[in-house]
Design brief:
Length: 408
């Protein structure tokens, strides 16, 4: 069955989300997406099945094994990697600490790393902390305050023969900016550095292709793309094999298990695979591999969200009492703004009264918001769209933000 020429049928999509019955406009997707029924059902099914720990010879243990490989294959399809390079963990932050500690063991005093001021703190602080311990120099790329862009040319000036790592976001969770990852990664590789890409915010909005992006590590978090709370980092298994994380003696030495501590949430892994199936099925059940269907559906998602977002930001920019942070050329449908003479917390309280879920603060984009100078006033207000948001909801968002001019 096909839903027609790569168009997203939002009425059908909304029918997949029982949580939308609460009647709110969920513009808080960047903090975590709602879950479709197939994900909840997959997790529930796994919880009702006999599932034991991995490594046994009886069927319930085989089921645990199957849930792990199902999640690895799904994440590999999402990112364009191989299942044997998918490290699963509780969330992106925890996995980034694991990888940061493992990578730092290969660094020498006087080596350098390059971080970006655009990033979520989870792709900054772990690197800074291990860099300090390893006596490694941290260099920074800055965001253009007016546009919200992260100009790629800065890397030419910051990369040296001592650079070991470039940590970068594929998209800002605060202002949506999508840096030119492929060109930055090419520069990093030319200098001999590895690239650790935070694709947590980008993943529900763009078709990820690890090879085209040239990222050595790609980090994602399933709860941002309609899955459960599970994180993953994807890398070439041969690269993972060169690294040694802290681990227990009896736990497997093989890759990627070597990076996975303790007993994992097998039932949630069923939800990870179901969430990727959900994304791959957004344009109906057209043929092809799951990866091919993801390519088609993420293109339709990008078109659909792009139209809604243009409508939203066009209206916000025209409001005299609203100050939008940045206007990046390439972005996800995520925008942050402040409202004159209102604290962000007051704004979101007012929006909540109008049935809108919106986030306020710095959403852990601490360096960015410090650079933009908004943290001393309580940060900003964020509206983020996902494939289940509608044009009517966007109109309600616009009307509600416009009405704030009268609330003050
Ligand atoms: C861009 C980005 N990176 C990293 C994270 C951290 O992910 P996790 O919650 O899986 O640790 C978030 C969470 O909001 C995020 O938006």
């Amino acid at each position: 069955m096909s839903w027609g020429a790569g168009r997203l049928d939002v009425a059908r999509v909304r029918g997949l989300f029982p949580a939308l019955a609460d009647g709110f406009v969920h513009a808080d997707g960047p903090a975590g997406a709602l879950l479709p029924e197939n994900v909840a059902r997959a997790v529930g099914h796994a919880l009702r099945m006999p599932v034991a720990n991995r490594g046994g010879v009886f069927p319930a243990s085989g089921r645990a094994e199957a849930l792990v490989s199902g999640a690895r294959s799904a994440v590999a399809d999402l990112v364009g990697g191989v299942p044997g390079g998918v490290v699963l963990g509780p969330n992106m932050t925890t996995l980034t600490y694991t990888l940061a500690r493992a990578l730092a063991k290969t660094w020498r005093p006087g080596d350098e790393i390059v971080l970006s001021r655009l990033d979520h703190d989870a792709n900054i602080r772990p690197w800074m902390q291990v860099a300090e311990e390893a006596r490694v120099l941290v260099r920074w790329t800055e965001v253009d305050i007016e546009t919200g862009e992260l100009p790629s040319w800065q890397y030419d000036e910051l990369l040296t023969s001592r650079t070991r790592l470039v940590a970068l976001t594929a998209a800002s969770n605060a202002i949506g900016t999508r840096p030119d990852v492929a060109s930055i990664a090419a520069r990093a590789h030319a200098a001999g550095a590895l690239v650790y890409l935070d694709a947590v915010h980008a993943a529900p909005h763009v078709f990820l292709d690890q090879t085209a992006l040239r990222a050595d590590f790609v980090a994602v978090s399933a709860y941002k793309w309609c899955g459960p709370h599970v994180g993953a980092v994807v890398a070439d298994p041969a690269l993972l094999a060169q690294l040694w994380p802290d681990k227990l003696v009896p736990s497997p030495d093989r890759v990627p298990e070597r990076f996975e501590t303790g007993t994992p949430p097998f039932e949630l892994f069923a939800g990870v695979a179901a969430a990727v199936d959900h994304l791959a099925g957004l344009c109906g059940e057209a043929g092809g591999s799951r990866r091919e269907r993801l390519r088609a559906s993420m293109a339709a998602v990008a078109r659909y969200e792009g139209e809604l977002f243009a409508r939203l930001t066009g209206a916000l920019w025209a409001m005299p009492h609203v100050h939008v942070l940045g206007q990046p050329e390439h972005s996800t449908p995520t925008v942050s703004f402040t409202v004159s003479r209102m604290r962000p917390r007051q704004v979101v309280a007012e929006l909540t009264r109008r049935g809108i879920c919106a986030w306020d603060g710095d959403y852990y984009a601490r360096e960015l918001f410090d650079a933009l100078g908004v943290n001393e006033h309580g940060g900003a207000v964020r509206l983020g769209l996902l494939h289940y948001n509608t044009a009517e909801e966007v109109d309600h968002l616009i009307d509600s933000v416009a009405a704030l001019a009268r609330v003050r």
